[in-house]
Specification:
Helix 2 links the parallel strand 2 and strand 3. This protein has six helices and seven strands, in the order E-H-E-H-E-H-E-H-E-H-E-E-H. By secondary structure, the protein is an alpha/beta fold. A seven-stranded mixed sheet has the order 3-2-4-1-6-7-5. Helix content is about 35%, strand content about 20%. It is globular and about 45 Å long.
Length: about 170
């Protein structure tokens, strides 16, 4: 069994003249990221490895989520995650070493949402319905995958354990 956590960056800003890759978080995103990090820790979802898109908003999301929480590992940047479609995200996951039991990816839509839809084959109906309606910024899906090795990741191998968004934790965060 492997656990995959898919974390969409928190709410970003788009200042005039700024290219997409350099977009920072909006104030709402800066408030939400630490809430999500604390939730990861409080719920015992601590990953063995974190892979982050190198875009400013994803790097900032993980930096704020993990700030001061020494139990959360630093993020490893992988340029393939930026604006990646589901198949490329899956390829990155399949390269993960077998000793990693829990992997967390910090990325972007539509790739994160598409990958989640592809991998999830079961789980609580209410959580799956919620996920199918929208994967908002700051959304975090926890998926248990019935595989022995990351290389075996396949469609419908996962069971959705939970789907949490920042507003579930604080009405002003998202």
């Amino acid at each position: 069994m492997r656990r995959l956590i898919l974390f969409r960056h928190t709410k970003s800003d788009w200042p005039a003249g700024m290219v997409d890759f350099e977009r920072p978080l909006a104030p709402r995103g800066r408030r939400a990221a630490p809430l999500m990090g604390r939730m990861i820790l409080d719920r015992g979802l601590v990953p063995d490895r974190v892979v982050v898109s190198p875009a400013a908003r994803t790097v900032e999301t993980w930096a704020l989520a993990s700030a001061g929480l020494v139990q959360l590992p630093p993020g490893e940047q992988d340029g393939r995650i930026y604006e990646a479609p589901a198949y490329l995200l899956a390829a990155v996951i399949r390269e993960t070493a077998d000793e990693v039991g829990t992997l967390l990816l910090v990325g972007h839509n539509p790739g994160i949402e598409s990958l989640c839809e592809e991998i999830v084959g079961g789980g609580p109906p209410d959580q799956r319905r919620r996920l199918s309606r929208k994967y908002p910024t700051g959304g975090l899906a926890v998926i248990d995958c019935a595989i022995d090795r990351w290389a075996d990741l396949a469609p419908r191998c996962g069971t959705l354990v939970s789907f949490t968004v920042p507003r579930d934790l604080d009405s002003e965060a998202e």
